[in-house]
Amino acid sequence: MCEKHRTDFQPDSSGADPCTHPGPCQPADARRAVERAITECCRATHAPCDAHAVSDAQLVASELTTNAILHGGGMTDFHVDVVGRGVRVCVSDRSDRVPVAAPPVDRQGRRRAGGRGWPIVCRLARDVQVSDLPSGGKCITAVVPLG
């Protein structure tokens, strides 16, 4: 696999990108960026791309970007790198709050909508780190195995 392969995000050619940072604004953009990084690395090294690993990495990127949008005050940065036998996804947002897994039911015993993203990230990634940013907010880095 690539020792290190990074793909810069290419915004949609429609010009309707409301982002203030150069990365994806939506989970679908993050999924495409992850697929592009992995595919380009596999092509460069003539290695097969494991479809399940690509799917896992896309799901992690999608969940992290969704959480940044819904709970973190919006994304402030996004990076994806293929390093060794894994893909590293980094998503920054404006919130200092560390993600937590919400119980599946509320205090009255009613099933809760949502709350599954963070456990999915923690299950699929072999390494997850949450770092405070000097200017406020946080960066979540997750490394998903590629085989």
Given the C-alpha coordinates, what overall shape results?
globular
Q: Overall mean pLDDT score? A: 84
Number of helices: 3
Strand content: 15-25%
End-to-end distance:
10 Å
Helix/strand structural class: alpha+beta
User: Uncertain spans, ≥5 residues at pLDDT below 50?
Assistant: 1-21
Major sheet: arrangement of strands: 1-2-3-5-4
Order of helical and strand elements = EHHEEHEE
CA gyration radius, whole angstroms: 16 Å
Query: Largest sheet at a glance?
Result: 5 strands, antiparallel
Oligomer: single chain
Work out the number of β strands.
Answer: 5
What percent of the residues sit in helical stretches (DSSP H or I)? 25-40%
In short:
The chain is an alpha+beta fold. 33% of the residues lie in helices and 23% in strands.
